[in-house]
């Protein structure tokens, strides 16, 4: 897989994938939502949504605000700190609205495609509360590369996932170890 792809779905969680699409400050370097149309493309590409919603400018702004709240709540968990009350309040208020309605289509799960965008945001917010508010949180972690801040839920059975992605960090670290060994220096871990 070429890196970086346009959108990164390594989170093992809708809310974590949503939170890691860019953001304010230094995170604007990896902004992948430049317009409502980008956000609609992201939803269509998301393994958890798989449809292209219509997104207004106001809804786009709401999505970006929710993303900040999710990012800081996730980082608080990584850093073993209490999440911010304002962030939690926004996530809860978003989750309180109606969420997406699932249906069977040809025997497969899909969401109602005529959904209002607020339903998409509610689904994202509800998944975040489920992730951070249940034992699933024990599988929530940060990439083992110290220069990478991507987070994920380890859904693997053994629960030993270390990297956001082999393509991005796993291989880089393997190469660093290999080079260190070749130089007779094994201090790189
Ligand atoms: Zn990484």
Briefly say what this structure is:
InterPro entries: ABATE, ABATE_dom_sf, Znf_CGNR. The protein is mainly α and 189 residues long.
Largest sheet: 2 strands, antiparallel
Unreliable runs = none
What is the CATH fold-level name?
Jann2411-like fold
The number of helices is 6
Strand order of the largest sheet: 1-2
Could you say which overall geometry the principal axes of the C-alpha atoms support?
globular
Pfam family, one: ABATE
Domain Zinc finger CGNR: 139-181
Protein name: CGNR zinc finger domain-containing protein
Organism: Paradevosia shaoguanensis
Could you name the key traits of this structure?
189 residues, mainly alpha, Jann2411-like fold, two-stranded antiparallel ribbon, 4 strands, 43% helix, binds zinc ion
Strand and helix map with partners:
Blueprint: H1 14-19, H2 36-45, H3 57-78, H4 85-95, E1 102-105, E2 108-111, H5 117-132, E3 140-142, E4 151-153, H6 166-182
Antiparallel strand pairs: 1-2, 3-4
The structure holds zinc ion (ZN).
Pfam families: ABATE, zf-CGNR
Organism: Paradevosia shaoguanensis
Domain Zinc finger CGNR: 139-181
Commentary on this structure:
InterPro entries: ABATE (IPR010852), ABATE_dom_sf (IPR023286), Znf_CGNR (IPR021005). This is CGNR zinc finger domain-containing protein. It comes from Paradevosia shaoguanensis. This protein has a two-stranded antiparallel sheet. A two-stranded antiparallel ribbon has the order 3-4. It is mostly helical. It has a single domain, classed as Orthogonal Bundle (Jann2411-like fold), CATH 1.10.3300.10. Helix 3 runs parallel beside helix 5 and helix 4 crosses helix 5. The protein contains six helices and four strands. It binds zinc ion (ZN). Zinc ion (ZN) binds next to helix 6. The site of zinc ion (ZN) has 8 residues, from helix 6.
């Amino acid at each position: 897989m070429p890196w970086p792809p346009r959108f990164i779905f390594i989170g093992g969680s809708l809310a974590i994938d949503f939170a890691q699409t860019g953001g304010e400050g230094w995170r604007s370097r990896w902004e992948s939502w430049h317009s409502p149309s980008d956000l609609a493309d992201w939803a269509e590409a998301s393994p958890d949504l798989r449809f292209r919603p219509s997104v207004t400018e106001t809804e786009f702004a709401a999505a970006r605000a929710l993303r900040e709240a999710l990012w800081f709540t996730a980082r608080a968990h990584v850093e073993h700190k209490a999440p911010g009350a304002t962030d939690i309040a926004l996530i809860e208020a978003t989750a309180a609205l109606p969420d997406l309605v699932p249906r069977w289509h040809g025997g497969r799960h899909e969401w109602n495609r005529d959904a209002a965008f607020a339903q998409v945001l509610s689904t994202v917010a509800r998944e975040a509360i489920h992730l951070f508010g249940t034992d699933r949180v024990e599988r929530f972690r940060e990439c083992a590369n110290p220069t990478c801040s991507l987070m994920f839920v380890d859904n693997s059975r053994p629960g030993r996932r270390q990297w956001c992605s082999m393509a991005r960090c796993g291989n880089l670290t393997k190469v660093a170890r290999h080079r260190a060994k070749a130089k007779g220096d094994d201090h790189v871990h």
